[in-house]
Amino acid sequence: MTAPTTTAPAPDDNDNNADSHGPQPHKGDPFDRDALPTPPGATLTLLRSLLAPMKARVVMTSVLLLLQQAAVQAGPLLVAYAIDSAVPAFRDGRHGPLVAVAVGYLLCAVAAGGLQYAFIRASARVNQDVLLDLRGRIFRHAQALSIDFHERYTSGRLISRSTTDVESLRELLNEGLQELVGVILACAYISAMLLWLDLGLGAAALASFVPLYGLVRSYRRRAASVYAARSTAIAAVIVKFAETMNGIRPVRAFRREAVNDAEFGRLNRHHERTNGDAILEMARYVVCSRVVANVTVAAIVLWGAYRVASQSLALGVLAAAVLYLRRLYDPIDRLGMFLNSYQSAAASLEKIAGLLAQTPSVPEPAEPRELPPPASELPGREVVFEGVTFAYRTGGEVLPRFDLTLPAGSTVAVVGSTGAGKSTLAKLLARFYDPTAGRVLLDGVDLRDLAVPELRRGVVMVTQESFLFSGTVAENIAIGRPDATREEIERAAKAIGAHDFITALPEGYDTDVRKRGGRISAGQRQLVAFARALLADPAVLILDEATSSLDIPGERSVQRAMSTVLRGRTAVVIAHRLSTVEIADRVLVMEQGRVVEDGTPAELITGTGRFADLHQAWRDSLA
Amino acid sequence: MPTTRATAEEADQETEIKDRSAVRTLLRLWPYVRPVRARLFTAAFVAIIASCVGLVIPLVLKWMVDGPVADRDLAGVWLGALYLLLLGLTEALLFGLRRWLIARPLAGVEASMRADLYRHLQRLPVAFHDRWASGQLLSRGTTDLMLLRMFLAFPLTFLLVNAVTILVGVIIMLGQDWTLGLIILGPAVPVVVTCVVFEKKYAAVARLAQDQVGDLTTVVEESVLGIRIIKGFGRHRSQARAFRELSRTLRGTELRKARLLSTIWGVIVTLPELAIGAALIVGVVQVADGELSAGTLVAFLSTALALRWPVDSIGFLLAMSQEAATATERYFEVMDAKPETAPAAGSRAAGAAPVPQRAAPPSEQRPHAAAGSSTEQLGGLQFLGVRFRYPDAPADTTPILDHIDLHIRPGESMALVGATGSGKTTLTALVPRLHELTSGRITLDGEDITEMSREELRAKVSVAFEEPTLFSATVGENVLMGARPDADTPDLDRALAIAQADFAHALPQGTATQVGEQGLSLSGGQRQRLALARAVVGRPRFLVLDDPLSALDVHTEAAVEAALRRVLAETTALIVAHRPSTVLLADRVALLSGGRIAAVGTHHELLRTNAEYAHLMSGTEESEPTKESEQAEEVAR
């Protein structure tokens, strides 16, 4: 089955619905089909740009290969010379030619081995540098892409791009180039010899290149779609695999094993099929090219023999031509190997190029601006939402025109029901997204004009998701400020009340979060996230439901810490727990993307609006 | 920035370093290769025939040149050309046949190994997954398996084919002239020695490289899963630096591999070539002395030259085999980990096995039994002398949970309250047997959970986790995962209504809307409500909710609570709670402290009588100032 692989759906798409995977309603979505649009020629441009910086080394490596091949090919010549000249000379008592053969052979042997040695090293360097470059490009680009991209692309696909797809380029570089150079070399050398021996026979042999060329073309065309299908199939396998392993607890608890086995089995079988298709495509090519080659040999031998019989060709010439002819077609198989690696790498590179062609929807500024020096010695800065509207790509305007000014140093609590737009507000302020219209200003500077380091000195957000990276607890906190000393890390942890649990871990701050006994509860993760934010020391701190998993004493101690930490900073606190609101000097109540109430907590509580309701409900919930 | 090198090290520690011989490791592949052995052997046989045919073609050419052509025998020429054509076609077809024979079977071997890996991983204890970064697992399931398939396709066949070719060639050469034959055989010993030394070194480096690929995979994965943190702190550059470090390390390892490879290849190319050279010189002298015919020397040398590819290729064939061996090693490292249950079938009989201490609990543990549960075999959910320590923790550490005795009566809901990190989540994970008890037992309606199959147990107990994970499926499918297979739309709607997750109907495709990996496109509160709907959709007899309302706003929370109360009336439930509002859902509350159940009672009772509980519920008790001053002191220091 061939899945649609280019930007246009293949016509046989509908025939294969039983095999196709992925959500039906999104059939046309390039994300779901794992086929991001690749600009024409982007694949080759990518390959070229990867190889360009090492042009000199590629040439050098090819020269090494050339010399190595020459050394290897010299062997038979020396054998011929030894038998034709050295033997008679030796009989005549002249040892010179034999010594020459001995020395020559020794040199050739050492040169062949030594050049092979040098070639492997040199080509490994080139290859590894290309791969390093490519891996780095993929990673950096993916990191630069915005959150909404990652929400759709999934980590599994990105892994697939940077592992299996890079791997196929590696194969191309490791074996393919060597094959290609070898093939070109051998073809050129042997064709020249044939033409030199006899123009007619040579031309006849060269004529067989026409069907071979057609064959290569048809193979390329057919293989391109097969390999692209395979690359898509393995990515789907990886996505499923990664998702299962990351959600192993619910998988277990909801007895998904069998269903998952079936689903994974389906994706896996699909990959198996495309994998088999790819191998068979290669088999087909090998058979066809061999048939063409062997038929040509038979035909030329027949013709040559006739000419010898009619005395228009010397016997020796035919013998030599036939021997060379055999060797002319050996490289054709190797060309197949090269095409094989090339097709597989091209399919992978196309996907990589598609990823690299994605432009960040939250791009870094071309000409970044600096934030003005703080107005006072307090760290806080003024935040202004100026005519901001925002709509998610999936449709539905979330923030209809929105204006808001948060004075420097103020702590603003944002409350409202789920989906009221609180988190969107926070994400716009953190510049996870850019507004559809309008501007978000930090001390009068548009967030879009700030370079990332400057932006993150300005605004930091703590979310309720508290992902921990592999590594130690200390390293996880230090994400807030990588150059922080251990003392500063511990101070931040202490301030937030995380120090006690961290020191109770087997190796304290140096406990690897994945190592034995390093299990950290959701509440503790949130404390780590807070410590991280504290360490970052931003002008504006956004807390998006950051205390949801904490118990009440934990939340209190965080709040106490916050009331000192936030002093002088601008803070936006989003919380369902109205306890958090107590540290705020202003409360915004949001409803369907609009601010419906705005005032100090005291004003709003005593009022009759929604906040008073919420507050009452909350007090009741405390019971 | 954190890296994951530790994981690979750990994996290394865990491998029992037994016999690391490549052959023995590769033999473990046999069960997977067995089903396709006929095809594989046939293919190898075909490959041998094909190379033989390839050897015959030059003979036919020689025969033609020496015979019919020289004799101007036109019929002979036609016959010769026909032979050539037939042999050529045969050779081509055999080449294709070999590939055709193994194409599907080998893709099948790769797929079945991958399916087994996945199946196995799904059934390994959760504790295993806690330790293994999924990138490491993933790299085993992808690049390692591809290496294995390539190994089966090429090196395995061609090591055999080449060995046969070399053997036959050497025999022919020895038959032609044994002195020259011995000279040709001369380098065999140093080449074999080099290969053995090389194998050892290369194995270590290849293993290292594969583990580093796994680490790299982990970093890529974490960089996406943690993208909000990375973006939020503007750390994508330092993340990229960390990645670059790791990929540099990998590059270094790959170059070490290349250096080893270049050495072995150098030796393999040079030594036989020198031997051929020596044979040539000796042969020439012998021919000159008339001890040897020129024709024999030519035949001898052409055979020797014909053997060059089989010998040369041994270098990379060995390297590929070695990589395949390490890939096998890495694969079975995971496959050898013990799954949760012994064979899934005989669960009842096998149920006793995983908990050897079950019969042991001495009578001293019994008196702890809480709230008048002196008799055994009560209905509802009962914890009896439960002790738990993570299986990978040293045996002498303090258990996380100890002497847990708790009885939740049928239909009753019990809130579980405790400080952050007190082990509440761990306790809830014990009920569906995500972790195995260290000792003690848990019963459902009097039946020990180890005596029912996990399937049965998990069908009875429904769970909502602290971190609401959604799978790449539609909203409806995600919710109905918690239900029996025959559940339908009304069940779904009911569950969504209880969890106040009616927003699902307003999504672009309603409940048929696809939610991505981890349901990232929904808010935390939305995901939590879907997870809750999933927990209640199957009307389970037992419900375990881990802080199910933490991400909800007050109004939604109140609405969910009202709906949940109805569900809870007919369900035996254990609910981890941080807030009084959640606690109030439950009939009684158990306080978890210091790894034990410190108190059980109603919310108001405990609020009155238990200082710690009051502190947890309001955060304003007297224990507070001391803690605060402690902290202040610490900060001051």
Please describe what this structure looks like.
The complex is a heterodimer of chains A (623) and B (637). Chain A is α/β, with parallel strands linked by helices and 623 residues long. Chain A has 2 domains: 40-356, ABC transporter transmembrane region fold (Up-down Bundle); 383-622, P-loop containing nucleotide triphosphate hydrolases (Rossmann fold), CATH 3.40.50.300. Chain A is built from 19 helices and 10 strands. The two termini of chain A are 63 Å apart. Chain A has helices spanning 42-51, 55-91, 96-144, 147-153, 155-197, 199-207, 209-246, 248-253, 257-309, 315-356, 422-429, 452-458, 473-478, 486-496, 499-504, 522-536, 552-565, 601-606, 610-622; strands at 383-391, 397-406, 411-415, 437-442, 445-446, 459-462, 540-544, 570-574, 586-591, 594-599. Chain B folds into 2 domains: 21-335, ABC transporter type 1, transmembrane domain (ABC transporter transmembrane region fold, Up-down Bundle); 366-601, P-loop containing nucleotide triphosphate hydrolases (Rossmann fold), CATH 3.40.50. Helices cover 62% and strands 9% of the residues of chain B. Chains A and B meet through helix 2, helix 3, helix 4, helix 5 and helix 7 of A and helix 1, helix 4, helix 5, helix 6 and helix 7 of B.
